Amino acid sequence: MSLSPTTSHEILAPAVGERLLLGAIRDWAGARSTDSRPNRRVAQPLACKSSDRVAGLFIAWMQTVEAALRRPIQIRCPVCGGISTDEQRLIVSCGLAGTASALGEELLKPLLTDGRSVMVLSRALNAALRAEGYPLPVRLQNRPAEHQVSYPTVH
What we know:
By secondary structure, the chain is mainly alpha-helical. Helix content is about 55%, strand content about 0%. It starts with 15 loop residues before the first helix and ends in a 24-residue tail after the last helix.
């Protein structure tokens, strides 16, 4: 079975936890472009929306992601301005962390040199989000990940 972010006709609206994670990823990227230490700027609003535990795990997760990057994370799809493939990879892999960690790690290979350490933190972040009432769905498909402009995407 291949793993792919959702990009088909069978689009489901992003879960609240996914939207929370996407917003935090984008806040991190925006803060990173103006500040070399975005931790507090991202953690405080995230903690207000969820919990200190979620915020702390998110910061650790993003630091681990950044340490393992093969290239800069693409934020927003360059074609339509919606969710980029990189953002989808991070969010979907986090949703997979509790049930299919190996698949999540495989999904991160094009983006990260070490997906295993990211998946360990993803599992903790996923559990913390679930405990706060923001569970991440497990999204699997039977085709490779591609951004298809002719079909609607999660944006």
